[in-house]
Amino acid sequence: MQPAIRQTPLASTDQTGTRSQLFLIIAIILVAIDLRPGITAIGPVLPTIIDEFRLSHTVASLMTSIPDLLMGTLALPTPWLVRRFGINPVLQIALGILCIAMIARAFSPNTATLLGSTVGVGAGIAIAGALFGGLIKTRFATRVAFIMGLYTTAISVGSALSAGTTGWLAQTVGLGWRTSTGIWSIFGIVAMVAWWFATRHEQKVVSTAPATSIFAGLPFRNKTAWLIALYFAGVNFLFYSVLTWTAPMYQEIGLSAATAGLVLASFTIAFMFSSPLVGIFSKSTDRRLWLAGAAAVTATGLIGLVAAPDALPFVWLPLCAIGLGAAFTLAMTLPLDNTHTADEANRWNAFNLTVGYLIAATGPLLTGYLRDITGDFAVPFALLVGVALLMLAATPFLKPHTAVTVA
């Protein structure tokens, strides 16, 4: 009589794998929530910071432009760091830098320290944010758009919470700008613990391949890669410009910091809800109709904002955010649509982030400069309309050059 075949170990292995993936998704979400409050918490209290440190609008814009700039430049070495040291230690160090820098910024005694700690904020966000393209491609190869939608939604959750409540904490509760911006460093501690828990049984993988230039394998000669990066640049040029200057603009019109923060929160909340929806419904790798629709909705919201900034802010800003939220998820997914392996996805993602954020860094800076020389925000926001229309014009050329099938 032959012994019965036991299938429990197989079932147990399947359950363990499913549980491991669930923990990893939760950790990705918690890390993503931590990746924007270091930037978005500044907007509602920026007028207070300008007054305290006697900054021009151009210098104040560096609070957002510096992180954008670093998100561009540090995306290049991040794939090399992952191959050399493994994703887990690199991510933990990046999250630690972000957490410490946010606390240091809250205690800044002068402008140099304020901007120097902002460099730390940008470095932590930049390195951590550049890690997830290859990770999602490897672990969730058949669901990249859906998981990327969760990731971008979680980023939006962090943005919405910090943008919507920082002004209220600073003004209504009376915590001041320092405590109300530094408090978001708690997210960093939560993210580090969650990532350790989700990956504690994984071994650190270090590449034994010969060291190569950080530029090796980047798709410099691929026209599709450039178009994707430019579309991504447009999305972030608009997002960070609106994020930085909407609350100050409405405070100039006469709203309180708390109310202006609510207007900004309507933007980030709408962005948060639109991000996952496009990930769920955009199934084909040819996403041009979705990309065009996102750009058109963004342009419509910005046109309404320019035409009547003091009328219907809770309509025009959320409309703009719906378009940008969809466009952001799509733009983050496009490098994965055009690649086959995790390493290739990391290289395309690094290229996308580098070109995109280097250009996007000029958005808040240029908007603040135009505000300084014109005296109001009409011309700066008209510029943003033009950028949205350029995004729309680029969409017919964004057909993927591979035949990858990705859900």
Automatic annotation (TrEMBL):
Write down the Pfam families for this protein, in alphabetical order. Answer: MFS_1
User: Which keywords fit this entry according to its UniProt record?
Assistant: Membrane, Transmembrane, Transmembrane helix
**Single GO molecular function:** transmembrane transporter activity
**SUPFAM superfamilies under this entry?**
MFS general substrate transporter
Is Lipid biosynthesis found in the keyword set? no
In this entry, which stretches build a coiled coil? none
Q: Which domain of life is it from?
A: Bacteria
UniProt-listed InterPro entries? MFS, MFS_Cyanate_Porter, MFS_dom, MFS_trans_sf
Give the range the annotation lists for the signal sequence: none
Q: Spell out where the chain crosses the membrane.
A: 21-39, 59-82, 89-108, 114-136, 148-170, 182-198, 225-247, 253-277, 289-308, 314-336, 348-371, 377-398
- UniProt-recorded name of the protein: MFS transporter
Question: Lineage of this protein's species?
Answer: Bacteria, Pseudomonadati, Pseudomonadota, Betaproteobacteria, Burkholderiales
